[in-house]
Design brief:
With 451 residues, this protein is α/β, with parallel strands linked by helices. Helices cover 30% and strands 15% of the residues. Strands 3-2-1-4-5-6-17-18 form an eight-stranded mixed β-sheet. Strands 8-9-7-12-13-16-14-15 form an eight-stranded mixed β-sheet, with helices on both faces. 44% of the residues are buried.
């Protein structure tokens, strides 16, 4: 099919959002294949803001038309949710819709997609036959930015307490030139720690990472630019009491470490003890209601907690309000929580979405209240929901690279007939939520979200 392809300008009115689904380098292939390519201008006509990290001239140079009007496009590449008034009828949209879990904030958009008989391909749902995500570029960039912003938050919090510290020279990620420039600044802080040490006014710095997936891996890459020693849970009290000031410490927990069986659930504990780690993990995933947080064993010793795990309502909270209150009564060592995955009221029960221009709040465990900013009694929580935007150019390049193997088939597919006859590859078909205004079989349950 000789489809006309469109590239959206992101519409979110928040600081830092300059990402694009296809950079000029990858968009050039669309023109070379003989397709007409229309790219919306980077400048938002209403606000005058530049909302893309790549210039209009770069797209024009590869043969794209720069035009606000995308009505001629058959297939439109975006990223984030689309304001309802911008949705065009009978188009094929690619985006992160954030709808398949029933997210309340996007139900009006979902209704509009249905009413306007669109096709919706959700990048998050492009998966292989084992249900593994295939487009994960922003996952890594969220990890990079989340770790940087958490170290920045620690520096700010310590400075407010008049404690000199090496983290204060680490900026918020959005204020760095690019990812490499930020890495250089973190490495410089690491050299400072190796020579001068971490502040004597606080215990040795111990950071705990929840999860061992891609987000955690990326966050650890940033943290590992410091003079890191990795420890296991059985050493945490020893390090807390006598750890070196010339190092920082890292603890990485998996599901078996994070959660424990509740007492009195009627489980054969002898049989459970004989399970392998893999079997125990599977038991948790199938029976999450039998489990509770095990983090009371580590929270009193931590300076920084990095949440890197995906959460759904059926799972227990990793840090419920009650646990945070109990821990805070005994120990105020924990200064910052970096909630990278940012599920409001999720793994971190008291978490809420924040944004790049107002990224941190203080949670008081006793009053269970939130105050935006760095000042106040409690724990600082960094829960920026659009972290990859802080490295918009880097994130866009990596995302385009991830998507590159599917671009040709997406732009050439036949969207006029049935999904079966579209010629889309199986991985992309799995990501089709809506086809011609109707939910596909795998997502028919979502009909309940628009009632």
């Amino acid at each position: 099919m000789n489809n006309t392809i469109g590239i959206l300008r992101e519409g979110i009115n928040k600081k830092g959002e300059k990402r694009v689904a296809l950079t000029p380098a990858y968009a050039a292939g669309i023109v070379h294949k003989g397709h007409r390519l229309i790219v919306q201008p980077a400048e938002n006509p209403d606000s005058g803001e530049i909302k893309r990290a790549f210039k209009d001239e770069d797209y024009a140079a590869i043969g794209a038309e720069i035009n606000e009007d995308l009505r001629a496009a058959d297939v439109i590449f975006g990223l984030k949710e689309i304001p309802v008034k911008r949705i065009l009828p009978e188009k094929t949209y690619l985006l992160f819709s954030h709808t398949y879990k029933g997210q309340l904030k996007n139900r009006e958009m979902l209704k509009a997609f249905i009413n306007l008989r669109t096709n919706i391909i959700d990048y998050e749902l492009i998966r292989d036959e084992n249900n593994q995500r295939l487009i994960t570029a922003f996952t890594y960039n969220a990890g990079y930015a989340g770790m940087v912003d958490s170290l920045w938050s620690l520096g700010q919090r310590l400075s407010l307490k008049r404690i000199q510290n090496p983290f204060v020279k680490i900026p918020q990620a959005i204020d760095g030139e690019d990812l490499q420039a930020i890495k250089d600044l973190v490495a410089e802080a690491g050299k400072n720690i190796s020579v001068m040490g971490t502040p004597e006014e606080i215990p040795p710095v111990i950071t705990c990472f929840l999860g061992k997936g891609k987000t955690s891996f990326a966050a650890q890459q940033i943290y590992d630019l410091l003079p890191v020693i990795e420890i296991t849970p059985d050493r945490i009290e020893e390090v807390f009491n006598a750890g070196s000031r010339k190092h920082v410490y890292k603890l990485v927990l998996n599901i078996n470490d994070m959660y424990r069986l509740k007492a009195g659930e009627g489980i054969d504990m002898e049989a459970y003890a004989k399970m392998t780690k893999k079997q125990k993990r599977q038991h948790y995933l199938v029976n999450p209601e039998f489990y509770e947080s095990n983090l009371d064993k580590v929270l009193p010793y931590l300076t920084l907690l990095m949440n890197c795990i995906i959460w759904e309502p059926r799972y227990p909270h990793a840090v419920p309000n009650s646990l945070m209150k109990d821990v805070y009564k005994k120990s105020k060592t924990l200064m910052v929580i970096g909630d990278i995955t940012c599920d409001p009221n999720g793994s971190i029960e008291f978490s809420r979405e924040t944004w790049i221009d107002d990224p941190v709040f203080i949670y008081n465990p006793f009053s269970e209240t939130i105050r935006m900013g760095f000042e106040g009694d409690g724990v600082a929580v960094m829960a920026v929901t659009n972290l990859p935007c802080e490295f918009s150019a880097d994130a866009s390049r990596q995302f385009s690279s991830d998507l590159s193997g599917y671009i040709d088939s997406i732009i050439s597919a036949d969207y006029r007939g049935s999904i079966q006859d579209s010629s889309l590859p199986a991985a992309v078909k799995r990501a089709v939520i809506i086809w011609k205004g109707s939910f596909t079989d795998d997502y028919f349950y979502m009909k309940n979200y628009i009632i």
